[in-house]
């Protein structure tokens, strides 16, 4: 019997710690979570629910009450693992021991970290040895060890399947993020290319406008327009100065008072205006202006306005 116990203990100690999975989120609290175990009638149903994740979640939610689970374990051992219960008075002890070992296996497989696993492993060994030392029927231990092995395999299948689903989900999310990042990068690249093209086009337009402005400013038409502006300004200066003199003549006739300063300023304006008209009109004629006299000159709009 000690060899059987040693074999079972070594099997549990050899369980791969790499198979550990994340803890499951506990279900909503119920009045009697143990009652959920009554729905499983055979080991096949129990192990199937283990592979789906239902049983591990329920075991995690036991909170120390092993009664119904213990009864289920005892029934499964009798019905599916050839355990003839010849010691009915030991039923409650068997139920408690079997369910507690089952819960320890569950915690071990779902635990994270080598330290935590080692703690549960020691705890399992103590419980298993105590069961061996005080159990009068070794057939119970044999049947229980076989059931624990089957449960461990089913639980590992569940953990592996969950791990695979999590990895697939992570891979899918990573791929979606990669595609989103790639699309965003492509959009940024397109926008940068478009912005660069727009900037280059605007720069090219600016260069064209600058070149055109340079050409207009050096053209005969523009110089003719400048000469025309000077002629018009000169004529305005003469007209304004003459207006001041006419006003002063009228004041002198009426009052006999002469404002020499005003007449001097007006005279200087007239002289400067006539000089400007004379010089500008000469340039105007050199540029092939068509007006016959300065009074006929009209400057018109700025030829370079659209390029400024």
Task: List the SSEs and their pairings.
Layout: H1 2-13, H2 43-52, H3 54-60, H4 67-80, H5 91-110, H6 114-134, H7 138-217, H8 220-255, H9 260-286
Provide a brief overview of the structure.
This protein has helices spanning 2-13, 43-52, 54-60, 67-80, 91-110, 114-134, 138-217, 220-255, 260-286. It has 308 residues and is mainly α.
Described by strand count, sense and barrel closure, the largest sheet is: none
Strand content: under 5%
How many domains make up the 3D coordinates?
Answer: 2
Q: For the residues shown, what is the average pLDDT?
A: 85
H/E order of the elements?
HHHHHHHHH
- E-strand count: 0
| Global Rg | 54 Å
List low-confidence stretches. Answer: 1-24
- Structural class category: mainly alpha
């Amino acid at each position: 019997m000690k060899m059987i116990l040693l074999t079972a203990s070594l099997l549990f100690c050899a369980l791969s710690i790499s198979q550990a999975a994340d803890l499951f989120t506990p279900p909503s609290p119920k009045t009697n979570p143990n009652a959920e175990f009554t729905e499983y009638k055979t080991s096949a149903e129990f192990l199937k629910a283990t592979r789906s994740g239902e049983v591990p979640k329920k075991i995690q939610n036991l909170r120390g009450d092993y009664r119904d689970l213990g009864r289920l374990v005892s029934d499964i051992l009798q019905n599916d693992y050839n355990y003839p219960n010849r010691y009915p008075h030991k039923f409650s002890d068997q139920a408690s021991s079997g369910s507690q070992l089952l819960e320890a296996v569950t915690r071990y497989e779902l635990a994270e970290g080598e330290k935590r696993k080692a703690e549960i492993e020691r705890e399992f060994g103590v419980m298993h040895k105590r069961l061996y030392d005080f159990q009068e029927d070794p057939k119970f231990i044999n049947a229980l060890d076989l059931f624990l092995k089957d449960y461990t395999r089913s639980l590992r299948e569940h953990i592996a399947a969950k791990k695979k689903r999590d990895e697939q989900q992570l891979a899918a999310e990573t791929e979606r993020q990669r595609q989103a990042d790639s699309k965003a990068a492509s959009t940024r690249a397109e926008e940068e290319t478009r912005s660069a093209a727009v900037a280059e086009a605007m720069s090219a337009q600016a260069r064209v406008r600058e070149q055109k402005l340079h050409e207009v400013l050096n053209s005969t038409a523009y110089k003719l327009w400048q000469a025309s502006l000077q002629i018009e300004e000169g004529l305005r200066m003469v007209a304004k100065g003459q207006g001041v003199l006419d006003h002063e003549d009228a004041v002198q006739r009426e009052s006999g008072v002469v404002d020499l300063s005003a007449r001097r300023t007006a005279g200087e304006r007239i002289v400067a205006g006539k000089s400007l008209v004379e010089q500008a009109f000469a340039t105007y004629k050199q540029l092939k202006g068509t007006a016959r006299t300065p009074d006929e000159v009209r400057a018109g709009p700025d030829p370079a306005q659209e390029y400024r």
